[in-house]
Amino acid sequence: MDYRSSDSPGLETYAGPRSEDVLPASATAAVKVVIVGGFGVGKTTLVGSVSEIRPLTTEETMTQAGVGVDDIAGIEHKTETTVAMDFGRISINEHLVLYLFGTPGQERFWFLWNGLFEGALGAVVLLDTRRMDVSYDVIGRLEEKGVPFVVGVNRFPQAPRYPMEQLRSAMDLDESVPMVDCDARDRASCRDTLLTLMRYLYTLTTASTEHQ
């Protein structure tokens, strides 16, 4: 983010971060969360909707170079794509802050995931019911890495709706993995999805402590 300002012609000064971007003084804990999913499932939209600071995005215009490489079936209208990551921040309460990292969806950019996953306590997997197949490999990678996750079913307009248990069966998800409805365009809905992840992580931590 560029925080440069100039009060005099030809002279630049650095004003520092905007007041709304400053981390609250009451914050005592920060958690890194990754937002994952296939190409075009709404990751950038979610980060932008819920972030309390101006989100950092790395979207670039899609070009002919991606033709035949990126699967755009069902999202032919998409003109931009994340090539590195999205970043945002949300305060869950006065003490707990979540740092959100949105991953690129195309498989050719998955080599970036290792760095983005480092230090992450959990993940939100966004699911598009029109293109469920793009999430199979994503969930498989999370399970391989041992990253706890919840699934947010992003309710796109015109997308088919299925009972949660039917979706769980189709995705071969364990009964313990939470699944929730999510509208990536709606801040409250996104926040509820993140809270579901926090509650799930707390449950896992409590269970692990009891077994020690």
Account of the 3D structure:
The protein contains 5 helices and 10 strands. The protein has 212 residues and is an alpha/beta fold. Strands 6-7-3-8-9-10 form a 6-stranded mixed sheet, with helices on both faces. The longest helix is centred in the C-terminal third of the chain and has 24 residues. It is globular, with a radius of gyration of 19 Å. Keywords: GTP-binding, Hydrolase, Nucleotide-binding. One of its GO terms (molecular function) is GTP binding. This is ATP/GTP-binding protein. InterPro entries: Gliding_Motility_GTPase, Gpn, P-loop_NTPase.
Task: List its traits.
single chain; 212 residues; alpha/beta; six-stranded mixed β-sheet; two-stranded antiparallel ribbon; 5 helices; disordered N terminus; hydrolase activity
Topology (elements, then pairings):
Elements (H helix, E strand, L loop, with lengths): L3 E5 L2 E4 L14 E8 L6 H8 L8 E3 L18 E3 L3 E6 L4 E7 L10 H5 L4 E6 L8 H10 L3 E6 L9 H8 L7 E4 L4 H24 L2
Parallel strand pairs: 3-7, 3-8, 8-9, 9-10
Antiparallel strand pairs: 1-2, 4-5, 6-7
Helix pairs in contact: 1-5
